[in-house]
């Protein structure tokens, strides 16, 4: 067997009983359970690459007279280190979008710039799989929001579209302005011809660390946090993200966000809300 296979170890959970003398015990318990699950998930996700690194470094020491083995183990150490780095980065991004009010430094953000940035981020992965990326309708539309957060959200959707698609397929990004009672919205749809998502999984993919196929997600460098970040960004901008998917056919993730002009007009009509 592979001595280096790193088994999934569940973080030991202290069975802490929280006694709360409040009326709404059920809700408090639910919130506490979500928090505890999150902490357990984070420690489990961190332990996996750290455990692998520790085993691999031992293997390197044992194989010091075999340069080829040393190189092989070092290569795997690099992969685990990269995984650890992206996990920590995504945790920082998630905590930022959960804690910072994006509208504090909101500005008009051009959709063509967001799309170009998202496509650049995926250019390498798309190239190796010969996936074509195409965008339409992005000229002359702007969103009212936080540039960094919007870029992270769209980047995650395009990255997923590429990661969960087979070779030689197409990823399309289409933007359009739609009118809504509260003012115009910008709709950005990211469509792939990938593996798709079942109805059961559709309800859960926006949860932190939920993955349909953990092995596949890990293989592409996924952390299970991307869609949780997208959902937070959409909601805190007063928008939403929805998914349509057909298993084996592909998926479309649609972001709806406030249009820059409409949001500014609204702020001028109600200066006290500015
Ligand atoms: P990950 O880092 O695993 O990609 P995400 O939060 O971005 O985490 O996505 C959660 C899960 O949703 C993924 O692991 C995958 O199973 C599923 N998923 C996300 N985007 C797509 C897509 N475009 N096509 C198929 N499945 C997807």
Q: In words, what does this structure look like?
A:
- By secondary structure, the protein is an alpha+beta fold.
- The protein has helices spanning 25-62, 67-99, 111-128, 147-163, 199-202, 214-219, 226-236, 260-269, and strands at residues 107-110, 132-136, 142-145, 170-178, 185-192, 240-246, 250-258.
- Adenosine-5'-diphosphate (ADP) binds next to α4 and α7.
Secondary structure elements and pairings:
Layout: H1 25-62, H2 67-99, E1 107-110, H3 111-128, E2 132-136, E3 142-145, H4 147-163, E4 170-178, E5 185-192, H5 199-202, H6 214-219, H7 226-236, E6 240-246, E7 250-258, H8 260-269
Parallel strand pairs: 2-4
Antiparallel strand pairs: 1-3, 4-5, 5-7, 6-7
Helix pairs in contact: 1-2, 2-7, 3-4, 4-7
Bound molecules: adenosine-5'-diphosphate (ADP).
List keywords for this structure.
single chain; 274 residues; alpha+beta; five-stranded mixed beta sheet; two-stranded antiparallel sheet; 8 helices; disordered N terminus; binds adenosine-5'-diphosphate
